[in-house]
Amino acid sequence: MSMIPYRLRRLGVVMTPAEGDPLEAEGVLNPGSGRGPDGVLHLLPRLVAEGNVSRVGLARVVIEDGIPVGVEREGVVLEPDRGWERGVGNAGVEDPRVTRIDALGLHVMTYVAYGPLGPRTALAVSEDLREWRRLGPALFRYDDALDMDLNLFHNKDTVFFPEPVTAPDGTEALAVLHRPMWDLDETKAGQGVRLPAGITDERQSIWISYVPLAAVRADIRNLALWDQHRFVAGPEHPFEELKIGGGPPPLRVPEGWLVLHHGVTGELAGAFAQQQNVNYAAGALLLDARDPSRVLDRTPEPLLAPETDEERSGIVPNVVFPTAIEEIDGRLFVFYGMADSKIGVALLERTD
């Protein structure tokens, strides 16, 4: 039985597609978040135009009586206007996860560039949430012990920890969670599933990598070079039967690092198709404060599963997909994608 003392209580919808806006014709979803220099809370939603072309927007959160109730749009901050973010018949900058890293004095965005070979994790940084500097695709330093080049694989659900940690080699480092996708058929037909040494379960799982803090301080471009890759957690409980993936930036709590994640059940179509027969629910992992590659506990059942009309009906039905956590007046609020169409908010509460 899980000893994670947290629960999620849904509060409602905070953002829906603007009627008549072609940039939001196929939904608003899966936002990053952050506070600008003036302290004002913003979401950075994924905006999906017709043809499944995604951009990253900026929207001020409207708060009433301490609760997020809506947004005011402030434009688009990232578009798929680089050659490697576009393919023939596809394009997009998708699913931004935004972490404020005070050690760098920057907001760090990981996002999915939907380019010529499919989805690839990429990075951008900003001081104010409005102007973003691309650092390019994430690169995985080769580790011969894995007998595999992680750069071969599509990778999603990447998010940085907000504070430096101690890497396996003992150095002060920034840590990032990610989720490799082992099926190379999605890139080159006939190659099949390829697994690193020591990995026997081909289902998509959460991994962690590290970046030396000194190297990033010397040159911010080093933030895109990831090293010391470790498996963290794979599917274990019924609501995670198909795969799991990370959610918002890990939250430091008294027990360690709280990681809200998603678990998936159902039947997957092609990896890049808009799924119609899956169920995404939100659970939690508790990672060790000193060694975030070590799982201390996890929830055997979802904290939040698709139940409302907004969560059950949309572009991809039956989806609860948490991507951001923010504190407002001493309380923690989780923003999440609803059926790949709208954005909801839930209160993260302690149960003890």
How would you sum up this structure, described in words?
Strands 12, 13, 14, 15, 16 and 17 form a six-stranded mixed β-sheet that branches. The chain is an all-beta fold. A hairpin with a 2-residue loop joins strand 9 and strand 10 (118-126). The longest helix is centred in the middle third of the chain and has 6 residues, at 213-218. It is built from two helices and 25 strands. The protein is globular and about 50 Å long.
Low-confidence segments: none
Report the count of strand segments: 25
Estimate the strand proportion. Answer: over 45%
Q: Categorize the overall geometry.
A: globular
The gyration radius over C-alpha positions equals 19 Å
- Distance linking N and C termini: 15 Å
Number of helices: 2
Q: In oligomeric terms, what are we looking at?
A: single chain
Overall pLDDT confidence: 95
Structural class: mainly beta
Task: Report on the biggest sheet.
Answer: 6 strands, mixed
H and E order: EEEEEEEEEEEEEEEEHEEEEEEHEEE
Helix content: under 10%
List the topology elements.
Blueprint: E1 6-15, E2 28-35, E3 41-49, E4 53-64, E5 67-78, E6 86-87, E7 90-91, E8 93-101, E9 106-115, E10 118-126, E11 133-137, E12 139-140, E13 154-160, E14 165-166, E15 172-181, E16 206-212, H1 213-218, E17 225-233, E18 243-246, E19 251-253, E20 256-266, E21 278-287, E22 295-298, H2 309-312, E23 320-328, E24 331-338, E25 342-350
Parallel strand pairs: 12-17
Antiparallel strand pairs: 1-25, 2-3, 3-4, 4-5, 6-7, 8-9, 9-10, 10-11, 13-15, 14-15, 15-16, 16-17, 18-20, 19-20, 20-21, 21-22, 23-24, 24-25
